[in-house]
């Protein structure tokens, strides 16, 4: 049995959140500590701890993360200028909640992801 998560409680509506989208596969809600004007988390309703725990049976939900992200970006008015989709994995990747989630971030220029390392 997978450990319960904060995000699972949001999916089940046990914890309040500003939910923008929910269906049988995924839930999308605003991040409570946004890093940009638009910062939405999109999670599979099934608890998948990390990217390393993804299996073939998760492909439909993970594909839905992307289609929902694109729709929310259009709805939020950031699709034309662009946005970033980010999935962190484990400690070195910056993952804080061990329930796979995609960050949709936009609404301002975000700059390059990782500057080229020199010297």
Give the topology.
Layout: H1 6-11, E1 19-22, E2 26-30, E3 38-44, H2 59-76, E4 83-86, E5 102-106
Antiparallel strand pairs: 1-2, 2-3, 3-5, 4-5
What does it look like?
Helices cover 20% and strands 21% of the residues. The protein has 119 residues and is of the alpha+beta class. The chain has one domain (6-106): HIT family, subunit A. The protein has a 5-stranded antiparallel sheet with strand order 1-2-3-5-4, covered by helices on one side. The longest helix has 18 residues, at 59-76. The model has no long low-confidence stretch (mean pLDDT 94).
Q: How much beta, percentage-wise?
A: 15-25%
Order of helices and strands: HEEEHEE
Number of domains: 1
What is the β-strand count? 5
Strand order within the widest sheet?
A: 1-2-3-5-4
Instruction: Specify the structural class.
Output: alpha+beta
Q: Give the overall silhouette.
A: globular
Please give the largest β-sheet: 5 strands, antiparallel
Rounded to an integer in angstroms, the radius of gyration calculated over CA atoms is 15 Å
Give average pLDDT, whole number.
Answer: 94
CATH architecture: 2-Layer Sandwich
User: How far from one another are the termini?
Assistant: 47 Å
Number of helices: 2
CATH fold-level topology:
HIT family, subunit A
The H-level CATH homologous superfamily, spelled out, is HIT-like
Give start-end ranges of low-pLDDT stretches.
Answer: none
Q: Assign the CATH class.
A: Alpha Beta
Percent helix range: 10-25%
């Amino acid at each position: 049995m997978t450990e319960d998560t904060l995000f699972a409680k949001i999916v089940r509506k046990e914890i309040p959140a500003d939910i923008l989208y929910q269906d049988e596969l995924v839930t999308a809600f605003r991040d409570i500590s946004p890093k940009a004007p638009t910062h939405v988390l999109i999670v599979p309703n099934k608890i998948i701890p990390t990217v390393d725990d993804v299996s073939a049976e998760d492909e439909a939900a993970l594909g839905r993360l992307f289609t929902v992200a694109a729709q929310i970006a259009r709805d939020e008015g950031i699709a034309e200028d662009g946005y970033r989709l980010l999935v962190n994995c484990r400690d070195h990747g910056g993952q804080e909640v061990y329930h796979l989630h995609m960050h949709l971030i936009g609404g301002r220029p975000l700059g390059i992801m990782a500057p080229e390392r020199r010297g």
